[in-house]
Amino acid sequence: MKTNEELLKLSAVELRRRIGSKEISPVELLEACIERIERINPAVNAVTAVCYSRARDEAGAAEKAALRGDQLGLLHGLPAGIKDLEETGGLLTTFGSPLYRDFIPERDNAMVARVRAAGAIVVGKTNVPEFGAGANSRNLVWGATGNPFDPMLNAGGSSGGSAVALACNMLPVCTGSDTGGSLRIPAAKCGVIGFRPSPGLVPVERRSLGWTPISVVGPMGRTVADTCLLMAAQAAMDDCDPLSYPVDSRAFALPEPRDLGSLRIAYTEDFGICPVDKPIRQVFREKIGAMRHLFRSCDEVAFDLFADADRCFDVIRAANYAARYRDAYEKDPGSLGPNVRANYEIAAGMTMADVAWAHVEQTRMFRRFQQTYRDYDLVLAPTTPVSPFPWSQLYLAEMDGKPLRNYYHWLSLTYVVTLVTNPAIALPCGVDHKGMPFGLQIVAPFRQDHALLSASHAMEQAFAAIPSLRRPVPDISKLAQPTPALKSIVTHPPKAGTPMAACAARVAEV
Questions:
Q1: 208 belongs to a structural domain
Q2: Where are the beta strands (DSSP E) in 118-192?
Q3: Are 339 and 228 in contact, with CB atoms under 8 Å apart?
Q4: Rounded distance between C-alpha atoms, residue 446 and residue 398, angstroms
Q5: How far apart are CA 115 and CA 76, in angstroms?
Q6: What CATH number should be reported for the domain holding residue 17?
Q7: How many domains, in total, are found in the chain?
Q8: Overall pTM > 0.85
Q9: pLDDT digits (tens, 9 = 90+) for 162-212
Q10: Nearest residue to 113 via CA among 122, 101, 104, 124
Q11: String of b and e for 418-447 (b: at least 16 CB within 10 Å)?
Q12: CA distance linking residue 332 with residue 408, whole number of Å
């Protein structure tokens, strides 16, 4: 029998294979995950509300189904973490906001339901910024999530809890979502995979403006293959999302082989407008130098189409916040945190002409960006412009001595890609100048999600043989002691006794 440590190091794909072949039990795997969460989570604060009793019941049923030889789902018996922006039936779902500190949904939303239907066992929720606003996973309900390579540093966001849970081998499957980079940024900062799929590929039930494509739901994983497995469970057409379309979801389950030597690569440090710290620019150039021999060609490309991308993203993002938070803001602005208020207040100052201009400009950028793929197969860029900074700093206010426009301007490397809607992935690519994970952002042609995942899988395999590009992993032994500061910003924990019985216990006491 494998030790818990050996078991948890296995990929989700390998764990699922061994469950199907009856080599390991879903019960055994769940208990190993619970033990790891209980031991390591106090140091990083990635997992928030948990439902161990229900999960144990489901693991027992999953074990019996495997022993009977039943037809098993893609994720059968795999413990899963659900980002705390997704409504999860019977489990405390706070959105990182004090307004929802006692909210227990009656049902799963569409994406969570699909993950459960594929056989995953929901163990708990993963931490987020308040309402997902910003790339620092801290809030007044649960506290801050620390980076697994240094818990006093930012783990990214808004899918920060999921990224950390994966990096620490707490859970083999975790979900995420992405508007300005919320899948890609925490993946890059924690050394895991974050895949932003094409809008409509994974149905989003909670998107208020259903026809606005900037917000998507997607998978995360420790490997590209793991990410594909979760993607196969998530992808679907669903009438909750007007952007969804028919898809052969199981085709995502395994990445197809791809010959890197046939790929024509374009790369950019900054898409022509994004602030990027000088050391990160140098690290990115070194990474390109270490990988360029893998490809047919690898050319630096100057982009001149994103001059108005910052203003465009401001308007389109703000319109979404106006749709979702108007009532709460007008009732009591103080009930919302500073990031959410800032977005709403941008919206309050906009006109219809601003909104129309932004959609016209987004369309123009989209059409011009697609022309890049007449000559190239993929575009490479850094995912984040700086090495992780302390989580106690809510956001990055300046770079290279120059002030940034607002709390999310430092995320522009990812939000320019959001605007053009092309599928993108953050792939671990060694470490930066400070020894922290470096994430390579890979952007594929319009709706070429399969091609992106296949190329990323091939790059991941090639990088494993190149020390400067290999995926870094945190030293779990250094996370054996709690990090009390991570909970220092919590002022009011959820009321005792409000979660359903055995379904939403706190992991860490505040």
A1: yes
A2: 121-126, 138-139, 143-144, 146-147, 150-154, 173-178
A3: no
A4: 33
A5: 10
A6: 3.90.1300.10
A7: 2
A8: yes
A9: 999 999 999 999 999 999 999 999 999 999 999 999 999 999 999 889 999
A10: 122
A11: bbbbbbbbbbbbbbbeeebbbbbbbbbbeb
A12: 23
